[in-house]
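Handout, section 4.2: multi-component inputs.
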Amino acid sequence: MEIIIKEDYDQICEEAVKIIHRAWKKKNDLVLGLPTGRTPLGVYKRLIQLYQKEEIDFSSVVTFSLDEYLGLKENHPQSFAYYMKKNFYQHINLKRENIFCLKGNPEDIDRHCQEYEEKIKSVGGIDLQILGIGRNGHIGFNEPSSSLSSRTRVKTLAEETIEVNSRFFKDKNEIPRFCLTMGIGTIMESKMIILLASGEDKSKAIQKSIEGPVTASVPASILQLHSQAKIIIDKKAASRLTRKKYYQWVYKNKEKVNEFLEKKK
Ligand code: PGA
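Output:
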């Protein structure tokens, strides 16, 4: 795991965009896995700006959404399909046929989840999966106790997740209790994973994910087993890490290691 501690939210978004941009330059038909929520908004905003400056082109990019509320139609303002369209897709030149979302109202849920998995495989897998993290350590909607090898499926939202997300709904009774989410096993097959976190309210989950044991009780802790996982967090989210100085030291010296390796070639 690479732990990158930045000053603030703006800087973590900048860092994530730099990595996405670099990945796109290497592979224009990049397959991205994308989350919703408050955290990735700054990333989408910056990617749109890059597109407007003609520094990135999404015409060959393929995207998969990480999760969706069950029971909400695509055009419901709180659906994740709507969020992605409003905050990202409608501002860039991604092709309609290259956008894959989990549906909130599929006819056959199991078949829909299975087909989503197959679709991911058919495009060669996800190159770069972006993740947020819940205060309870969830990734996607894989709540604590989710199997660490789970695939795309229905999940029941944890009470704390419903509570946190209730701010987006006028009527509390309208908040979905169930969702579809890529599984932890699905996420772990991505070639690279970036997890973003900002703010004090994420600091406990971040500390447990990075420094605690790998456990289904903290789903994000599974990233310790991924060879290309980058955890990009601001100082507040990093505030409870016990080895913060060490991570900063490693990050600071990374350039030097790269220079050394370049010279050896
Ligand atoms: P947030 O959500 O970005 O809105 O904090 C993250 C998550 O729940 O995964």
